[in-house]
């Protein structure tokens, strides 16, 4: 193991701007996803429209938020994910969060390219369930990190 001993351990914590980028990315993904669900299932259709126009707008924002979120995750990879994993701290909540990101990226990719309607509906359901779990899992990860830091652990 090449863990550099001279580095302060607090360096595992993402910096202020990185933390804000994580919140912004997750918030945008969640809001645009919920907006799509609202437009798709709840809002009345305007005259002679097959889909609510808000759906397309929600997915434009969602797609942009996905690109942003993946870039943020990339930035966290070495300094946060790998280093925290090597230090064996918060592996459960961090690993769950990471697993959700992978699952959402994979199912999101499927939503783009899977043509079969039944299979696509299954993927959509899984994606929405994982998506609903994302903010909760992030909150758990942050709360455990903050509380163990307060305890000085
Ligand atoms: C296997 C994966 C992961 C592990 C083992 C892990 C571990 C940790 C640890 C140990 C801390 C506390 C750092 C400290 O205060 O010294 C932390 C904080 C944090 N992690 Fe992770 N993490 C993982 C994945 C992620 C991912 C994927 C994200 C975001 C997409 C993330 C976002 C954050 C944030 C924002 C904090 C700061 C919480 C705060 O102090 O306000 N982590 N993580
Ligand atoms: C890492 C996080 C996420 C990634 C990478 C991601 C990615 C994607 C992608 C690529 C699409 C397809 C876009 C399109 O068809 O135009 C999509 C659709 C969607 N996403 Fe996400 N997403 C994420 C998080 C979320 C969250 C948090 C929610 C909130 C519930 C959500 C809800 C949805 C919904 C409702 C759709 C449309 C489903 C459908 O067309 O049947 N996503 N997502």
Give a structural overview.
The chain contains four helices and no strands. By secondary structure, it is mostly helical. The longest helix has 34 residues, at 53-86. The chain is elongated and about 60 Å long. The two termini are 22 Å apart. The mean pLDDT is 94. The chain binds protoporphyrin IX containing FE (HEM) (2 copies).
Overview in brief:
The chain has 153 residues and is mostly helical.
What global shape is seen?
elongated
Q: What's the number of helices? A: 4
Which stretches of 5+ consecutive residues score pLDDT under 50?
none
Structural class: mainly alpha
Instruction: Write down the Rg.
Output: 18 Å
Average predicted local confidence, pLDDT: 94
CATH level-3 fold name: Fumarate Reductase Cytochrome B subunit
| Helix proportion | over 70%
The major sheet is characterized as: none
H-E order: HHHH
First-last Cα distance: 22 Å
The CATH architecture classification is: Up-down Bundle
The number of strands is 0
The CATH superfamily label reads: Transmembrane di-heme cytochromes, Chain C
Query: How many discrete domains?
Result: 1
Bound molecules: protoporphyrin IX containing FE
């Amino acid at each position: 193991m090449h863990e550099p001993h001279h580095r302060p351990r607090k360096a595992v914590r993402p910096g202020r701007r990185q933390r804000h980028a994580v919140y912004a990315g997750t918030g945008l993904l969640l809001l645009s996803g919920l907006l799509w669900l609202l437009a798709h299932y709840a809002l009345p259709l305007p005259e002679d429209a097959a889909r609510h126009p808000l759906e397309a707008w929600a997915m434009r924002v969602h797609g942009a938020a996905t690109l942003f979120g993946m870039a943020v995750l990339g930035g966290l990879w070495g300094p946060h994910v790998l280093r925290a994993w090597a230090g064996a701290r918060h592996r459960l909540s961090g690993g769950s969060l990471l697993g959700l990101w992978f699952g959402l990226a994979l199912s999101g990719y499927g939503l783009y390219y899977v043509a079969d309607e039944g299979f696509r509906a299954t993927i959509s359901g899984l994606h929405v369930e994982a998506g609903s779990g994302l903010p909760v899992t992030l909150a758990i990860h942050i709360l455990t990190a903050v509380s163990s830091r307060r305890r000085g652990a």
